[in-house]
Amino acid sequence: MAWGKWRDDKTFHRLEHHCADVAACLEALLDQPVIHRRLASFAGCEEFDAATIGRLCALGFLHDFGKLNTGFQHKVLNDSVFVGRRPQPAGHIAEAMAVLVEDPGVQAPPHYAHAVRCALKLDELAEWGDSVSALLLAALAHHGRPADPGYMMHRDAVRRSWMPYRGYNPAVAAAEFGARLRQWYPQAFKQRSPTLPSTPAFQHAFAGLVALADWIGSNETWFRFEHSKRDDYVDAARSHATRAVSEIGLAVERRRAMSAAPEFTRLFLHVSPNAVQRAVAAAPLDERLLILESETGSGKTEAALLRYAALFKAGLVDGLYFAVPTRSAAMQLHRRVNAATQRLFPSDDPYEAVLAVPGYLRAGDVEGHPGPRWEAFWDDRPDDRDLARRWAAESTRRFLAAQVAVGTVDQAMMAGLMVKHAHARAAALARSLLVIDEVHASDAYMRRVLGRVLEHHFSAGGYALLMSATLGSASRARWLSGSREAPPLDEAVTVPYPALWGRGNSTPVLHALAGGGYEKCVAMTSASDIEIPEAIAARAQAAVRSGARVLVIRNTVDAAIATAQALEAIGGEMVPMLQVGGAATLHHGRFAAEDRRALDREVEQAMGREARAAGLVVVGTQTLEQSLDIDADFLITDLCPLDVLLQRLGRLHRHRRDDRPAGFADPQCVVLTPSEGLSPDRSLLRFGLGPDRDGGGVYPDLRILEVTRRLIELEPLWRIPAMNRALVERATHPEALAALEDELGEAWAGIGRLVEGRAIGDSQTGQGHSLDWSVNFLDLRFPDAEERIRTRLGGDGAVVKFADEPVGPFGLRVSRIVLPPHLSVSLTGVDVSGVMAEPFEGGFRFSCGRRSFRYDRFGLTKI
After folding, report:
1. DSSP helix/strand/coil, 527
2. Which of 20, 38, 464, 811 has its CA 20 to 30 A from that of 533?
């Protein structure tokens, strides 16, 4: 007898039973039409025959055969049972490699591992095709990383772990284990069956499905421990697997048959769709990639949900992953997507959209809390069925297995990076429509990695929708065809806007469409006040006195705080600022999650669609330009790249209103610029302008910033969205930037080389970090420094968890704070737990490593 799962109370699950659980889960997954087709696409066929499915399940059954080794079987027993030289505790991946790969350099007797190989009759699997060895290695990678024989095999202890000891003989156990395999999956051993697919991409996809099956098959909710020998256990395993896959939400055929028709009125409770939404809803279902370019506020989110509803109803996708750039954007969007999801699926089989943001547990409107042993506790105390539906929400590695999830783009990127669980993420994502919002915000590294993700996704037959308000032609060419060649500038500016692009069999297809929102003419003015927070505050104060709702967006947190402090200094209570819990504050990314939710809520109440006109100023950073449904009467913003500026203008006069204050009936925007202009010789990094010495920075391309500044002076009235295309191309097109370099000289050309060099380096880094599915699994290795790859995603820094949950500036208890990357050097990606806070009136202080921080109504600042 060999055990496969063990609890502290010494209850165990037989190894052949656990392996049957996983094989049955793999079988249940392959029984889902979309998942089946995705895997079959790598084999060049539409579906697998019964023998092929049996063989794949048999390989899934073998995923844990390494646990048969003596060291693994004896590592949980009390030391008192051993006499003399007892076996060393062992794992099971390297030990399985010792059976699969002959290694003459190992001094320990090789015949023990060879005896196990013979007992399992592994050599008989050779007739399944040349890819069997690679597929076995793919099954062994179910813990998230490929096994590395070069690292594991040169240790005598690995061989010794297969030596018999005290009545336990691994070869005898292996013979029984192998007999169970042949008894329970006889179709796998039929003669003259087709050989298994041999493409490396098939191996990678199979590895992901086995890992997904192992996650499900290891859950005691569905697979209770069985220590007694049972000839018919596989029948129970199949029954449990069918139930598990259904309750989790990976089996969707019943929900598909009963789901609502993808009708706009039913999903969103609006009267009718606009032109953008109609165009996406009417797009051919055989176009696997769509790119939607439309202005902010034109209903792109609803268009994406219509696309998902149509694909889901047609049986072409099972799930949806909606990827956005930031945590705050994900949290805001999640509410809207969840509301539509509730109306799409039948009331007797509902589904809650998952918030796929690390550090949060949310399904639908319900919050969860992490518990011991990877458990989660939910505020509504769900029954077993509802709890099962939240399985994907309870672990970051399972986010992409949700039927509907909204999260950060890095979760999708990790399906294409050489990081742990990448294959399982990719396998789960393959069944979903992948929506990437604000795709113009992707830097060179992100573009390269997302390009690899999409390559895998499309090769599996998957679908994607990329959305942007301001995508330049050069970027669009890269997404549509992988080309770095943009059309000539005079041609690029004439392309219709808004537009829907589809990638047909080989060439991009343009679906022109009418405007999606209402037209607005924005009076653009520049003011050389970016370095003078008092002047900015005075300008906002004057507008507030007229009853205007003023939005001030600064490029950096420090500049935003300085502006908020200046407003208080010159106006006191005469300048109403955003308030939360009675405390005047501002909006940026360095607030705790509990406070960010309160901030978002107050901003939307103060400046949302239904808010009444009243004098108020909201100061913040880029967090105000995405996802929040806010409508300002007057906008003051730092100079920024033109595509970003258009994004910010989307928050100005966002909706038609007839209650604007006098003097603000028409939209006005003041763009803050440096008093001495822009120059390669002058550092303006503290305002997010220009490159650092490595070519990085908030907005590093000084050329685009200079062209943007000139366009503001040249075009004092911007018609939005009619001018969007021309404005973006004139500020970002390679010809426009080259013309600027020719005019201003070598120093500006040097900026171009620095920025381009950084982009090339980032792209090459992305290429090096990306998971290449053309590499045979026999040759696949993951780097040891995986944390550096995760850190390079550009996400958050260290997560500081407080021992005492101190009270924050708005009266809410704060459980954790995420430090920005530049303030968490040596701590990035690390959970710092049990930190003590020192409270003071209006906030608290704390130390982390050698750094001390203050947290109050202005957010997190370094002391």
Report:
1. strand
2. 811
CA-CA distance, 775 to 758, in Å (whole number)?
Answer: 28
Q: What share of the chain is helix, strand, coil (3-state, %, to 5)?
A: 45, 15, 40
Contact indicator for 639, 655 with CB cutoff of 8 Å: no
Provide the token pair at 267: 């999903």
DSSP string for residues in 625-638: SSS----BSEEEEE
695 phi/psi in degrees, rounded to 5: 90, 5
**Residue 581: left (phi > 0), alpha (psi -120 to 50), or beta?**
left
CA distances to 307, 337, 388, 404, 750 from 247, in Å: 25, 21, 6, 14, 58
Pairing outcome for strands 12-14 and 3-6: antiparallel
Identify which of 316, 345, 648, 344 has the alpha carbon closest to the alpha carbon of residue 470.
648
| pTM (predicted TM-score) | 0.91
CA nearest neighbour of 771 among 395, 137, 207, 132: 207
Do you find a cis peptide bond into 721, omega within 30 degrees of 0? yes
SS (H, E, C) 31-61: CCHHHHHHHHHCCCCCCCCHHHHHHHHHHHH
| pLDDT of res. 504 | 62
Residues 85, 86, 88, 94, CA torsion sign:
positive
Q: Annotate 426-461 with DSSP letters as a single string.
A: HHHHHTEEEEE-SGGG--HHHHHHHHHHHHHHHHTT
* Token pair 């573009």 in the structure block, residue: 447
pLDDT in tens, 315-372: 999 999 999 988 878 888 998 899 988 888 877 777 899 999 887 889 999 988 877 6
Identify which of 816, 766, 770, 775 has the alpha carbon closest to the alpha carbon of residue 794: 766
Sheet strand arrangement including 289-293 = 376-378, 366-370, 362-363, 354-356, 404-408, 319-324, 432-436, 463-468, 289-293, 499-503, 508-512
User: SS3 for 501?
Assistant: strand
Is the CB of residue 860 less than 8 Å from the CB of residue 557? no
- DSSP 8-state class, residue 165: B
Terminal Cα-to-Cα distance of the chain (whole angstroms) = 61
Reported as a single tens digit per residue, the pLDDT across 596-607 is 889 988 998 899
| Phi, psi torsion values for 835, nearest 5 degrees | -75, 135
Q: What is the DSSP letter of 666?
A: S
